[in-house]
User: Fold these one by one.
Assistant:
Number 1:
Amino acid sequence: MTFSEDQVRARLSELDGWSYDGKDLVRLCVFPSFMDAIRFVGRVAEAAESANHHPNIDIRYDSVRLAVHTHSENGVTERDFALAKEIDRAINIA
Amino acid sequence: MTFSEDQVRARLSELDGWSYDGKDLVRLCVFPSFMDAIRFVGRVAEAAESANHHPNIDIRYDSVRLAVHTHSENGVTERDFALAKEIDRAINIA
């Protein structure tokens, strides 16, 4: 079941640094170096593979943009919030 | 020194599967799985860090889009072709 835009916005407070662009939950993470960004992507990938839910990942030198939505439902679902929380955990462990 | 569009297009034959979108040298690589794509990004990152030249990297599940240009010269230079060749080598080792 997808969330309405209002529901998504209301639940953003559960997350750390995520926004909603009308389609995806989005988080931009900036690191001290390119290789720090790459190592972060490796941790995100492990969390994503465990959840069997895979964000779009855009790497721009020291910045990583993550975007998650549920393709099969064409919207944001509980699975997206769960993955976003896992990613927040991966950041905080870093 | 940046290459003209004609020069870039003439030199694409030196590379394997790259195109030119008017700004960047671009290669799209598709892998059997998300984790294969992530491991490829790790190899590209090592090549990029060694060259001190970093492509834009967009991961879409099993697909990785690489785009290289030289920011400081606002165009495609010898460094971009050198990095593209290193990336081709990383793919072929895989």
Number 2:
Amino acid sequence: MSTSEPAPTPTGAAPQSSPGQGRGEPVRPAFDRSGLVPAVVQDEASGDVLMVAWMDAPAYRATCTTGLATFYSRSRQEQWVKGATSGNYLRVREVRLDCDRDTVLVRVDPDGPACHTGARSCFDDGLVPVEPSGAGQSR
Amino acid sequence: MSTSEPAPTPTGAAPQSSPGQGRGEPVRPAFDRSGLVPAVVQDEASGDVLMVAWMDAPAYRATCTTGLATFYSRSRQEQWVKGATSGNYLRVREVRLDCDRDTVLVRVDPDGPACHTGARSCFDDGLVPVEPSGAGQSR
């Protein structure tokens, strides 16, 4: 999670290269004070961002070890395997942590629509009209 | 932000189709109790997820109106325009909200590396070794 820039590269802090390669236990994210990290789910084939949800430590571990994307419901206060009810599992192809280790990127092969509305992605119907003043359009 | 499944489609709640098309003010996300929403930044050309950061209302509005991705630093408690110091601006091509309107997806054309480490993406060096037990590999 980028919080400012430019930030000095931490020395001896969060790993900047493949963290924890070769360990038996999956590399642990930097969970927030609530014990959670946001997890971005991306379709490996299309590159589309499908959804964003939260993971606690057990959900993260389950995602890394079962091959099925698993999250933590803040409202129900429990883990949930995406697809357990709908059948639309998200099959884990790759897990990445960001440079601060406080965000998870899960690249998946989805069995079906990722959104509870039936849409392929939770972002499919959310286009926001933007009217840049011009600064963003020129290079 | 998906919090459970299956969730009934809300009636008269968060819009399920293009929210606020045609309004003068950008559609407002559902900010959390801290007044923030997570924002996922995706490279429009490559589809790569570049970084995840936070937005408050002014940062979101700036992102939608200036065409330059703008975030909120929780540590410094202020907005920051990505690239203002490094020159590596993220030029906004598209803004989307998810089905619950509590996550922003910003598709951008980046002027340079998105990560403060100099990496193209904050996730470039964060591959986590996963050893699915098999459930995720079969269909």
